[in-house]
Specification:
Helices cover 30% and strands 22% of the residues. With 384 residues, it is an alpha+beta fold. A 7-stranded mixed sheet has the order 5-13-10-6-9-8-7. Strands 1-11-12-4 form a 4-stranded mixed sheet.
Length: 384
């Protein structure tokens, strides 16, 4: 019996005879089929068909990955887009005609998702204080006032002969009292602000109170009067004055007269007191030889001098004007400052708790006054 495999392509194996082993027949057929397929693949590679296919696939992938290439028509760049691109490259140095095309505004989304930074640095105005405390004599007390005994007059010894009787002398005694005055205020601040600021809001309130109290007490030490304030040295009626000789123009000779009107002990320990405007006028004054009365400090840390004595610039002194006292000179150890309570701050979170507020109380108790008027002298803008 003879069998033929007609379905196989040309070159396939023809199986003949019943005497052949079926397994070897199948194995031989598979080997011939595999060889035929390999030959066909080699023909494809040889003819370049596979290489062309790979080239076409890469071209499609490249086109698909190209940005903005979705088949739509490319729009021309607007003036705003061009200006924005230029701004990104050059910033504020971009051409002015292109910057005009940009609009500066607060974007509703960008504004919320990019909030402004809150700086921890506060911007504070300058608070100027007259430097009377470093010059004066400062004491502390626990009483509502301090009384200083003083001698109003001395004895009167007389020269006598051998047999003459002695004459009696009277000794005048008195007292000077410096009452302690009180200055206070309070500040209400939101509890939410106190919590959100992490203590910074309270610290800023404390600093503001300290500056305010320091300014107010320094002003009182210079010009204070009345029953509620410390006595200022400019308000003491016992301090003598020297007339300037002119109502509006400062005279160099008047300063020399004022300086030497004080006893030598007080004169050699004295300090000039005036504000910056008056000091600017003094710096232009000259003596008879053309030398400036004002002399700069040649050593760091040393004060300026007028007629060889230091100058303290006190903002609370008056300006040069008719009948005013723009300049004072004296030994400021004769002015006594009495501290009873330093700046006391009490935080009260309960008083306004239902309103969500905290009240911060501040209190200062201090007194001041002239103990020895003879240590001071003022310049009056008048002819007499």
């Amino acid at each position: 019996m003879t069998m033929h495999m007609k379905a196989l392509p040309p070159g396939a194996i023809e199986i003949k005879g019943d005497e052949d082993d079926p397994a070897s027949i199948v194995t031989k057929a598979l080997e011939d089929l595999t060889k035929s397929l390999d030959d066909r693949l080699k023909d494809v590679v040889t003819k370049g068909d596979l290489a062309g296919l790979e080239t076409r696939i890469k071209a499609v992938e490249t086109k698909a990955n190209r940005p903005g290439d979705g088949g739509e028509k490319k729009e021309d760049a607007t003036a705003e887009r061009k200006a924005f691109g230029t701004y990104l490259r050059f910033g504020i140095n971009s051409p002015a005609d292109e910057l005009k095309a940009l609009t500066v505004s607060t974007d509703t989304q960008g504004g919320y998702f990019a909030p402004a930074e809150m700086s921890a640095e506060f911007i504070r105005d300058l608070v100027e204080v007259s430097p009377i405390r470093p010059l004066a004599s400062v004491r502390t007390t626990g009483a509502p006032s301090v009384i200083y005994p003083k001698r109003t007059s001395g004895t009167n010894a007389l020269w006598k002969g051998e047999t003459q009787s002695q004459a009696e002398s009277g000794l005048g005694l008195g007292q000077a009292e410096i009452p302690v005055r009180e200055i206070n205020t309070y500040v209400d601040i939101s509890n939410q602000l106190l919590a959100a600021s992490g203590g910074q809001a309270e610290a800023e309130v404390r600093m503001a109170l300290a500056e305010d109290f320091g300014k107010k007490e320094a002003t009182a030490f210079v010009n204070g009067s009345g029953p509620l304030q410390p006595e200022g040295f400019m308000g003491n009626a016992d301090i003598a004055y020297t007339a300037n000789g002119h109502a509006t123009t400062l005279a160099a000779d008047a300063l020399i007269t004022l300086l030497y009107a004080l006893p030598a002990s007080y004169r050699n320990a004295g300090t000039w007191a005036m504000n910056g405007t008056t000091l600017a006028t003094i710096r232009k004054l000259k003596d008879g030889q053309g030398n400036y009365l004002w002399q700069p400090a040649y050593t760091a840390g040393q004060p300026e001098t007028i007629l060889g004595r230091p100058v303290a610039e006190m903002i609370d002194m008056p300006d040069v004007a008719a009948d005013a006292f723009p300049i004072a000179y004296g030994d400021f150890a004769g002015y006594r400052i009495v501290d009873r309570i330093g700046l006391s701050i009490l935080v009260n979170p309960f008083l306004l708790a239902t309103q969500g507020m905290t009240r911060i109380h501040a209190t200062r108790r201090v007194g001041g006054g002239v103990l020895q008027a003879a240590r001071f002298r003022k310049l009056k803008m008048a002819t007499s």
